[in-house]
Amino acid sequence: MNELVNRYIDVWNEKDPAARRAQVEAIFAADGRYVDPLADVTGHNGIDAVIGAVQEQFPDFVFRLGPSVDAHHDVARFTWELGPKDGEAVVIGFDVAVLAADGRIQNVHGFLDKVPAQ
């Protein structure tokens, strides 16, 4: 599960659209769903579009995995940060990922703990 969560964070950092799409298809089920307070999408197209939109909004920022992944059975929870490569996080979140039978991610339920002021 740790490896899959690391790959999940990597896909959020992948700037090359073709490579990002390939990674989305590799780690998410075809009918996988990503939902957080700002997005609710299903399928590779939707997930890839959300990641691309976040990268456009924060072009020079990187995602970093929090201190640990807590997992059991087919569920994992973990924190992440988004901010400048060598700077303080601007966004902090908490995700819960549920796996499909084939070991790819079926659902991600995201929560935002810290967001920039509007």
UniProtKB/TrEMBL annotation:
The record's Gene3D superfamilies line, in alphabetical order, gives:
3.10.450.50
What is the protein name given in its UniProt record? Nuclear transport factor 2 family protein
Where does this protein come from, organism-wise? Actinoallomurus oryzae
The record's SUPFAM superfamilies line, in alphabetical order, gives: NTF2-like (SSF54427)
Limits of the SnoaL-like domain: 5-106
Lineage of producing organism: Bacteria, Bacillati, Actinomycetota, Actinomycetes, Streptosporangiales
